[in-house]
Design goal:
Blueprint: H1 7-36, H2 41-61, H3 78-106, H4 110-118, H5 120-125, E1 133-136, E2 143-147, H6 155-193, H7 200-208, H8 210-215, H9 217-229, E3 260-265, E4 268-276, H10 292-306, E5 318-324, E6 329-336, E7 345-346, H11 347-351, H12 360-379, E8 382-383, E9 392-394, E10 396-401, E11 405-410, E12 416-417, E13 424-425, H13 438-441, H14 458-474, H15 492-511, H16 513-524, H17 537-557
Antiparallel strand pairs: 1-2, 3-4, 4-6, 5-6, 7-9, 8-13, 9-12, 10-11
Helix pairs in contact: 1-2, 1-3, 2-6, 3-6, 7-9, 12-14, 12-17, 14-15, 14-16, 15-16, 16-17
């Protein structure tokens, strides 16, 4: 039993009041829409958000044996509990503003209005006393009477609803939706990226709990579990069926693009990605097969990439892998749905094409998709380790433009991220490779260039994202930001300083101050985080707030 005076007790009281406010808002919106013969868009929005609030309540405050008969909410540390409470209070105040406006619109009696002001909870418990009755004349369709403890609205009153109040209500409800979405995202982050996320029992609860499944938390929980279990899964993803042999082929290198090719098999589109593998270098295989250690890593990676994921990951589902001895390559095969209308092209190749410069809005939407990708991977403790513009693919799609008509264009808002050759769950140690390749090193954090001796960290992925965001903002490959294309660079910090200089001097005039600040934070790692957890929870929260939210706000207004 939850103590009513504890943080959990106070928070659940706020959530319950929030649910009642949501239901009341839905009633008022439905009445107004019926009276105005309007669409169901607003009532549906309110109903959907109310359902989400109830699901979050059930997930957080239902007692469960997994937590020793206590609630999930009680497993969070006090700071997270307080953040949940404050978010719910904020959402509650937004809904209260909407209810006040709607009730003023209907002109409720002063007596009831005063009661609402004195005790919002009491007014919610007595909403059944408010009735809205309509008697319409069948001959003329006119409104005969409307009673709700007040007189019928005048025609000017109806016009005020249409021209002023309705817009204000729509803005309030959009704010309600945005804050509710933020609450959901934060709860999922705390469930997976806090210390709770290392508990298999907790993750399995998220997999099976009905509310968690309806919220969509089960897929990410499964992905988190799969990192530990991928190597133990019995079924191999090696493509042994001979029917694949005629499709998987040698891929000739293309400048500024990874080793990718697209093909169609049985009317399904696939992208093949080849990774160099020198079997002769392994004395245990003598060039005939993949050695056991490498095979284990390939299987684990393929199984992780095979796991169902939300679209926000921007990672295509892997259907399997195959060793191609003649090409000294390992081929990973990814399914593309729906079937694209043309071949993919890397972001880096697009950056070199002056004829395909995107509009400002497309730049922001591309940056948003990539930022969310990094945030989502880090939430499940997955590191990319090779995030570069030549590993980011974009596909064409049909666009129906009012000015130019129907045309085919690059689908900038939906990039696909590949290049996972060194990607693995965070607990695995990665010392990287000493390749000293400028075109790759430019995306690597200074601490990861040369022969790195420390574990790859989330901040290193964020640095690589910053380089790609700089490229998008300037619409120019990073390697061209130095006259010798960084071929003579032997000081990693000097490379970083050069990128920061370009961001400071050139970005604001192209994409604005906020975008410049986002890139600077990624390149410098200055997120104001101290005393972080082992799971980098504070960094992840700061990244979402200072990077993802800022880009998303800009993308919505461009």
């Amino acid at each position: 039993m939850i103590d009513p005076l504890s943080v959990a007790g106070l928070t659940i009281a706020v959530v319950d009041a929030l649910i009642k406010l949501g239901e009341r808002t839905g009633e008022l919106i439905s009445d107004a829409n019926a009276f105005e013969s309007d669409s169901n868009e607003l009532p549906n929005l309110v109903n959907d958000e109310n359902l989400q609030t109830k699901l979050i309540r059930n997930l957080l405050f239902s007692e469960c044996m997994v937590y020793g008969g206590k609630t999930l909410f009680e497993q969070f540390d006090p700071d997270i509990q307080r953040q949940i409470e404050l978010l719910c209070v904020e959402i509650k105040s937004i809904l209260q503003e909407g209810i006040d406006l709607l009730e003023r619109r209907y002109g409720i009696t002063k007596e009831h209005h005063d009661t609402c002001k004195e005790s919002p909870t009491t007014s919610l418990l007595n909403v059944s006393t408010l009735t809205l009755s309509r008697n319409r004349s069948t001959s003329s369709g006119s409104l005969a009477s409307l009673s709700w403890g007040r007189t019928s609205p005048s025609l000017p009153g109806l016009l005020r609803w249409s021209l002023r109040d309705k817009k204000r209500v729509e803005a309030i409800l959009q704010s309600f939706k945005d804050r509710n979405s933020r609450l959901k995202k934060k709860v999922e982050l705390w469930c997976l990226a806090s210390q709770l996320g290392v508990s298999p029992e907790h993750l399995m609860h998220l997999q099976t709990d009905e509310s968690s499944r309806k919220l969509g938390f089960d897929q990410d929980a499964s992905l988190r579990l799969a990192q530990w279990d991928a190597g133990k899964m019995a079924n191999s993803l090696e493509l042994l069926d001979p029917s694949w042999d005629s499709y998987l082929k040698e891929i000739h290198p293309i400048d500024n693009q990874g080793m990718f090719a697209m093909f169609t098999k049985d009317n399904v589109a696939y992208i093949q990605e080849n990774h160099h593998y020198d079997a002769m270098a392994s004395p245990t295989t003598a060039g005939q097969d993949v050695d056991a250690r490498t095979r284990g890593r390939i299987e684990s990676l393929a199984k992780l990439l095979h796991q169902p994921k939300e679209q926000v990951f921007r990672v295509l589902p892997c259907v399997g892998w195959k060793y191609l001895p003649r090409q000294s390559s390992i081929a990973f095969v990814f399914e593309v749905q729906p079937r694209p209308i043309g071949a993919p092209v890397s972001l880096q190749r697009l950056l070199l094409n002056n004829d395909l410069r995107p509009e400002l809005g497309d730049k922001f939407r591309l940056a948003l998709g990539l930022s969310k990708c990094i945030a989502q991977m880090h939430m499940v403790q997955w590191l990319h380790e090779s995030f570069r513009s030549d590993n980011i693919l974009l596909l064409p799609h049909h666009v129906d433009d009012e000015k130019t008509g129907a045309r085919v264009a690059v689908n900038y808002p939906e990039p696909w991220v590949l290049g996972f050759e060194f990607s693995r769950p965070e607990p695995f140690f990665s010392v990287g490779h000493s390749d000293f390749e400028p075109t790759r090193d430019i995306y690597r954090h200074p601490d990861r260039q040369g022969q790195p001796m420390e574990m790859f960290k989330k901040i290193h992925d964020i640095y690589a994202l910053g380089v790609v965001l700089l490229e998008i903002g300037l619409w120019e490959p990073a390697v061209k930001l130095e006259k010798n294309m960084f071929t003579h660079a032997n000081n990693p910090r000097a490379v970083q300083a050069q990128l920061i200089k370009h961001a400071q001097k050139r970005l604001e005039s192209r994409v604005g101050r906020r975008y410049k600040e986002v890139v600077m934070k990624c390149l410098t790692g200055d997120f104001g985080v101290e005393d972080d957890t082992k799971e980098d929870l504070k960094l992840q929260q700061a990244f979402r707030h200072q990077i993802v939210d800022v880009i998303e706000m800009a993308a919505n207004y461009v």
